[in-house]
Amino acid sequence: MQNNTNILARPPGRLTGGLTVRALALTYLTVILIIPLAVIFYDGLRDGLGGLVRAILQPVAWHALMLSLWTAGVMAVINAVMGTLTAYVLVRYSFPCKRLLNGLIDLPFAIPTLVTGVMLVVLYGPQRALGAWLDQNLGLKIIFAPPGIILALLFITFPFVTRAVQPVLQSLDRDQEEAAATVGAGSWTIFRRVVLPAIALPLTAGTLLSFARAIGEFGAIVVVAGNIPLRTQTAAVYVLGEIESENQRAASSMSIVMLAIAFGLVVLVDFLQTRGEKQ
Amino acid sequence: MIVERPLTNDQRPTTNEHRRSTQVIGPSSFVFGRHWLKWLLIGIVVAYVAVLIVVPLAALVAGAFAGGLAAIVAALSEPDVLSAFGRTLLIAVIVVLIHAICGTAVAWVLVRQNFRGRRVLNGLIDLPFAVSPVVAGYMLILLFGRSGVLAPLTEALGIKVAFALPGMLLATLFVTLPFMVRELMPVLAAFGIEQEQAAATMGASGWQTFWHVTFPALRWGFIYGLTLTFARALGEFGAVLVIGGSVQGQTETATLYIFRALDDRQYVGAYSAALVLGLISLILVLGADLLRGKEH
Question: Does the pLDDT value for residue B15 go beyond 80?
């Protein structure tokens, strides 16, 4: 998701292709994007905001929403730390197989999320060697439990933070870091005082985007977490269940909450990136 | 000074890159040359990537091949599986064709034209990246489902949208909308309007201008955007599950087959179909990256 404010700021020239193309484009966006978005708000807000709040506060719905939020939160924290570290190592150090490592980071973008879920089930499933061993010896359940959800989310969103931070780290002037080192600052102090402020904006933007992406994730989670209400059912899986049992009120309410979170985060990230460009 | 080493550091060598490689033994070795710290950090990252990405990937390969190659071939040549993959391919091809035309039009209009609500529309383009696929499918159920808002209209026209191919196409179009548009917009903006205007001044029609002037400049972005769209369309799961209903032999795509096979404990089928789908997507995206590298 790149920022386009500077593209839009460029004054468009005179119409050369005319209104036909505009009509095509706008009709297309209306059919594909705007009508579907509108209908969900129309349906979900038919009984007012009160009905929506009541539907969300049902124990099963509330638990699903909270599970999505907290697992996404844990993922975001780990991703922020490990993503920054990965970007830092890739930019600052040279070591064997660095290119391979750099390529592996984009892998989650390419692999369908359902396939990601299957991978984790093959590896950690209760009937599989590693899954059974972890369960018996460490009492650690991964599949059909929150750790599986967090692992799946980490896999899927791995590129977000690394790819946001990497270019900024690369363009960073290293004179300041060297100056700090000359006056005797330790590596950690240099990182905290010099590097971190410079990458703060892209780091925040990447982390928020990964969070937004995680809230809606379905394919990887549904196979890894299963669908146990009040235990491993996340918001997206909850919506699926309510659609299947034709409980439109509940499905629409949860959908609107998820849309609102996604939309709010996208707007916030856009704002942060615009600020970053101005600096 | 030091001998210039081959630059393995990075994908895109820049002037900065040269500076960095000379500084490895320069003053910064003093800062970053704490060897134990360097290798500790590298070790942490490599271990993290291995546990998170490489080991699960290897597990999938091992799982698929557990019964040998013959079992994979047998599982994948079931008529059900072939028809599911065929349906996925069909959807992906149609989606790519539609986005090739409409996605390009959207990008062109958003960059070149000025109208009310352009900024809002531009913001909305990114939304499918963040909207849950389940919600995307559900929107279409609300429109075209049994008691859907537009159901009377589609019934009158005799078109079946929900639980049929048209609905799955709409869902996949929604989910893949940003790829093409976002790939083309920066290219269009960088290309500028001067050449288009020059062509128009010389009497070229709008279509001639686009085909002979604008499109050649867009070509690589176009191919890259379509490849990403195709790869994403192949892997779509949540949205087509909701709107398609996953009826075996009718609306079952490759991802939906994997999901069903997993549920039915047909592990060889599930794992090998997942492996094939993952490999196809991977090759497509890697190929697109190579193309992009060539272009720069």
Answer: no
